[in-house]
Q: What sequence folds into this?
């Protein structure tokens, strides 16, 4: 009996020591385990992200479709914050009347605007019906720098906004574009305008803009062109170094087909989201159900 009691006391003592050590270990494990401290930092996708932004076009109706896409854009922001939206024209339907700006821009995107998200716009064909679009050019919320074509940079990504309307100052704009592209030191060059270049929808491919822009895109390494005008979503394959992305289903939609260079197309109401890294741009097409329906990669 004495032996058993002695064994019991010994085992009880060891158990107490072990419990004390385990408690200390649990209390201090976050400090002792370097993996736990650096797990988030070690995620390469969060570590080397240069820029996240979204694009949408043909939005300015103030109707249910626009609000549905705007809600999806806000939901995406809650999960993956961004501070830049490319607004690729037809910002105010039907005739570009600036007095509608509250109904077709400030209210639908109020949650994003309150969070400091900046919209950078270009002019669409509906926008120039009133005073040739000048009120929109001057409107602070569109961040157009008071110009019909302009450029801005964020984190080694340079954007070039164009006026692709028929009455644009084409001669001077093209001189400006080539000068800006040739002098750009940015790793990523992204051009956006309202009108389509390659498309499989209502208007189809624009042979005039192919002749005008694609030689410059190839010469100066433009990796991505974003546009609206066609009321659908369409992503092309790499065409001579450039991917063409249509995001014109921001409020309404029209049927779309496919072409030999089409990677993905849909008429669903949607917007596009972009994660820019040092060596690639990841593109996602996102619908009003908040689901990603398309994913593509633009490589450097």
A:
């Amino acid at each position: 009996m004495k032996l058993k009691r002695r064994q019991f006391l010994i085992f009880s003592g060891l158990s107490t020591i072990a419990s004390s050590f385990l408690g200390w270990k649990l209390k201090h494990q976050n400090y002792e385990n370097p993996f736990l401290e650096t797990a988030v930092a070690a995620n390469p996708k969060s570590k080397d992200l240069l820029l996240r932004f979204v694009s949408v076009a043909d939005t300015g109706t103030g109707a249910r479709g626009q609000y549905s896409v705007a809600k999806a854009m806000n939901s995406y922001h809650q999960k993956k914050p961004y501070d830049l939206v490319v607004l690729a024209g037809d910002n105010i339907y039907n005739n570009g009347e600036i007095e509608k700006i509250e109904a077709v821009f400030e209210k639908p995107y109020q949650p994003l605007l309150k969070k400091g998200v900046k919209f950078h716009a270009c002019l669409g064909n509906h926008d120039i019906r009133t005073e040739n679009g000048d009120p929109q050019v001057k409107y602070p919320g569109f961040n157009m720098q008071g110009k019909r074509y302009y450029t801005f940079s964020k984190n080694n990504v340079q954007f070039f906004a164009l006026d692709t309307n028929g009455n644009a100052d084409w001669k001077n704009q093209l001189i400006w574009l080539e000068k800006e592209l040739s002098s750009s030191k940015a790793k990523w060059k992204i051009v956006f305008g309202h009108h389509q270049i390659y498309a499989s929808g209502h208007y189809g491919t624009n042979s005039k803009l192919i002749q005008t822009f694609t030689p410059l895109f190839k010469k100066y390494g433009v990796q991505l062109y974003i546009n609206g005008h066609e009321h659908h979503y369409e992503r092309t394959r790499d065409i001579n170094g450039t991917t063409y992305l249509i995001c014109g289903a921001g409020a309404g939609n029209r049927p779309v087909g496919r072409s030999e260079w089409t990677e993905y197309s849909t008429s669903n109401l949607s917007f596009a989201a972009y994660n820019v890294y040092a060596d690639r741009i990841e593109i996602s097409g996102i619908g009003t159900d908040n689901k990603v329906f398309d994913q593509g990669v633009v490589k450097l």
The chain has nine helices and 13 strands. The domain at 49-299 is CATH 3.60.21.10 (Purple Acid Phosphatase; chain A, domain 2). The first strand starts at residue 49 and ends at 56.
